[in-house]
Amino acid sequence: MFVIVLRYRAPMETIDALRDAHYAHPDGVFAQGLAQLAGPLEPRTGGVVIADGERAAVEAAVASDPFVTSGAATAEILRFRPTWPAERVPWLHTRDADPQR
């Protein structure tokens, strides 16, 4: 699994103008089914995505995101291994042990 941290580098007007393209991005983490959970940071300085999939697919999706390609945001991709999932997150209990995910 991965935590993707987006940090805005452009004025909020630019971010707002790119938002629809970011959500609709055909090769993005949402369209590819990689995103499990996502939302903005508070205060509104970026966003966080929890993604699951192969590292190469996550990296490619993030690199081609309109926020990133325009320079409006930077992205940091952090791999983590969930070892203590809450009962209310049942899909984490059924994950395989693939170390590349």
TrEMBL record:
InterPro entries: Dimeric_a/b-barrel, YCII. Transmembrane segments: none annotated. Residues 1-80 form the YCII-related domain. It comes from the Bacteria. Gene3D superfamilies: Dimeric alpha+beta barrel. PANTHER family: GSR2449 PROTEIN, YCII-RELATED DOMAIN-CONTAINING PROTEIN. Belongs to the YciI family. This is YCII-related domain-containing protein. It comes from Streptomyces diacarni.
